[in-house]
Specification:
432 residues, alpha/beta, eight-stranded parallel barrel, 19 helices, binds iron/sulfur cluster
Length: 432
């Protein structure tokens, strides 16, 4: 039975206990939200050593880090280091998007080493293998796609991105209206090519029941992907994007009918002033299933700093109700991220999630900032380091820049405002 089936039957699972304990929420309330589909706990029955985490309403906003090889750079050791660094920096989940080298080995090693939930996009491997073995994507068969899905899921993958809402009708919308950047989702572009070449419907939509039966057997959470997500601000919130989202709403209900957990993926590139509307539309059309946003990037012009553009959008989306933020690294749109890029991407996205958690009034998030402020007032540097979202960087900066005297910092030195007022309040004397 899946987490959803058990929740509906009134059972509190060990995974629910862990999530409720970590987040300090009432476990019965959590069970109800899982039963309603408002919270998912991606936890494949085959993933040993998993520390389960919940995604959805009433919980802290979660952060995902994408890692994985490419056809140009395939180094398993480097990907395992990225996994370690991402988890250490605070990633709640990691997606293995490998398309180069030995994809099966990479995924299995990542699963073995990971305490956090692992996601994949199976169509990537299906296309890579069809290209290598048969000479191209157009030779891919429906069975090839489902065999890769089954293989990945049997390995223990906890959630899979499946672009089931990219239908022929949605593509018609896109073609009629036109776009600046057409399709930027890799999975979306593969499926579109296949569908148009064969003049067929998307197999992930046509055979959705087949997908559900695999997901149900392993309790894999379906992350219903947005193959038509906008790839630039000019394409945001257009008919093609919303058409796909409406289909995802229908598929959400069908998945729930089979006790399969579902979350919905969202844009992409979206101007700041459209983010709240996008979250509202997703929540309404997809029956409050958790919303997993890919950014959103609030400008198309931040190359080299796209992680910052993503964090701005992520914070606004989070405040509006998004539940899960997929990070972006400084190398987005430029090259495959390295280890340090992964770390940087996780940290800035954690800051975005935390800022949104505070705005949503989450007690754990608010308490952390209150404690940080008290530590600042007390010039308690050790506590400040412990509470920092990036303690490693905070410690390094402090250690590399010791004050010439006292427990202040080199920003104001002996004119430390906090010390001055504290000393005056304590001793009624001006220290300088
Ligand atoms: S020296 Fe300035 S920046 Fe540093 S702790 Fe004191 S008030 Fe804050």
């Amino acid at each position: 039975m899946t987490q959803l089936a058990k929740a509906r039957a009134g059972t509190i699972t060990p995974e629910m206990e862990v999530v409720a304990d970590n987040e300090q929420v009432d476990v019965e309330t959590l069970r109800e939200k899982v039963a309603q589909g408002r919270v998912v706990i991606p936890a494949n029955v085959k993933h040993e050593g998993l520390e389960p985490c919940g995604v959805g309403e009433g919980l802290l906003i979660k952060v995902n880090a994408n890692i994985g090889t490419s056809s140009d750079r395939a180094n398993l050791e480097e990907e395992l280091t990225k996994l370690e660094v991402a988890i250490e920096a605070g990633a709640d989940t990691v997606m293995d998007l490998s398309t180069g080298g030995d994809i099966d080995q990479c995924r299995r090693k990542i699963l073995e080493a990971s305490s956090v939930a692992i996601g994949t996009v199976p169509i990537y491997q299906a296309v890579v293998e069809s290209g290598e073995e048969r000479g191209g994507l157009t030779h891919l068969t429906v069975d090839d796609i489902f065999q890769v899905i089954e293989k990945q899921v049997a390995d223990g993958v906890d959630f899979i991105t499946v672009h089931c809402g990219l239908t022929r009708a949605a593509l018609e919308q896109l073609k009629r209206q036109g776009r600046v950047t057409d399709i930027v989702s890799r999975g979306g572009s593969f499926l579109t090519t296949w569908m148009l070449h064969h003049d067929r419907e998307n197999p992930l939509y046509e055979y959705f029941n087949r997908l559900l039966s695999i997901a149900k057997a392993y309790d894999v959470t379906l992350s219903l992907g947005d193959g038509l997500r906008p790839g630039c601000l000019a394409d945001a919130t257009d008919r093609a994007q919303i058409h796909e989202l409406m289909t995802l709403g229908e598929l959400t209900k069908r998945a729930w009918d089979e006790d399969v957990q579902v979350m919905i993926e969202g844009p992409g590139h979206v101007p700041l002033n459209q983010i709240k509307a996008n979250v509202l539309l997703q929540k309404q059309l997809c029956h409050n299933a958790p919303f997993y946003v890919l950014g959103p990037l609030v400008t198309d012009a931040a190359a080299g700093h796209d992680h910052v553009a993503c964090a701005i959008g992520g914070a606004v989306a989070g405040e509006a109700g998004a539940d899960f933020l997929c990070y972006v690294t400084p190398t987005e749109h430029l090259c495959l991220p390295g280890v340090e890029d992964v770390r940087e991407g996780v940290i800035v996205t954690k800051i975005a999630a935390h800022a949104a958690d505070i705005a949503r009034g989450h007690k754990l998030a608010m308490d952390r900032d209150r404690k940080m402020s008290e530590a600042r007032k007390n010039l308690d540097w050790e506590t400040q380091m412990e509470l920092a979202i990036d303690p490693k960087k905070a410690r390094r900066l402090r250690e590399e820049n010791p004050p010439s005297e006292g427990d202040v910092c080199t920003m104001c030195g002996k004119y430390c405002a906090i010390k001055q007022v504290r000393d005056y309040f304590d001793k009624k004397v001006a220290p300088c």
